[in-house]
TrEMBL record:
Keyword entries, A-Z: DNA-binding
PANTHER family hit by this protein: HTH-TYPE TRANSCRIPTIONAL REGULATOR PKSA, HTH-TYPE TRANSCRIPTIONAL REGULATOR RUTR
DNA-binding region: 43-62
Origin: domain of life: Bacteria
The HTH tetR-type domain, residue ranges: 20-80
Matching Gene3D superfamilies: Tetracycline Repressor, domain 2
Region annotated Disordered, chain positions: 1-23
Pfam families found in the cross-reference section: TetR_N
Protein name, UniProt field: TetR family transcriptional regulator
Comp. bias (Basic and acidic residues): 11-23
Length: 201
């Protein structure tokens, strides 16, 4: 091998790094586009332009808009769960603090992007299959994280229903936040619900 040239292993590693970076750019651009333009305005061409990626590269990784958007929401969802875990590590573990963390998580841009995807899936059978699978996986992950943060065991009677009701509640609050800032009312409802949840748990 000539001095300064790359070996096969190093070449493959660099290519893998470039692939990961391209996918990351595409997925982040997709979520931005969903939040700003909605499902109808999120085209593969627009996403590729925002990401600074060629159409060929975009199509190489994601054949359809549905695949791209589902992957983007899942990717950002997984990242958001990690952010939520880090935030939880440096905050108090009171029931109110945990419910507030989970409510804020659902009021993020991720929820807005996911909502666009969920609505589009209602009338698109192919997209619906992807979204149902994605919803189930992310739902399990957030549910498990809620149990961990609240330090409860869902084998105890009533715990599973209480935690699931909490997640349903914060999703509803996030939906109410889509057209106008609903932060003040959300904070009041979160405080009220946290007191009720503490009694139940």
């Amino acid at each position: 091998m000539w001095p300064g040239t790359l070996g096969p292993v190093e070449t493959r590693q660099r290519q893998a790094d470039r692939t990961r970076e391209t996918k990351r750019k595409l997925m982040e651009a997709t979520v931005e586009c969903l939040v700003e333009r909605g499902w109808s305005g999120t085209t593969t061409t627009e996403v590729a332009e925002r990401a600074g990626v060629s159409r060929g590269a975009q199509l190489h990784h994601f054949r359809t808009r549905g695949e791209l958007v589902a992957a983007a929401v899942e990717h950002v969802g997984a990242e958001s769960v990690e952010v939520l875990k880090r935030r939880a590590a440096v905050t108090d573990k009171s029931t109110h603090a945990v419910v507030e963390l989970i409510a804020d998580f659902h009021a993020s841009d991720l929820f807005t992007a996911a909502l666009e995807l969920w609505v589009a899936a209602r009338t698109d059978p192919e997209l619906r299959e992807q979204v149902l699978d994605l919803q189930a996986r992310l739902g399990r992950e957030v549910y498990g994280l809620a149990l961990e943060l609240l330090d409860v065991d869902d084998a105890k009677p009533g715990v599973k229903d209480a935690v699931q009701a909490t997640l349903d509640l914060v999703r509803g609050l996030a939906l109410a936040n889509q057209l106008a800032d609903d932060g003040k009312r959300r904070a009041h409802v979160v405080r009220y619900w946290a007191r009720m949840l503490e009694e139940q748990l």
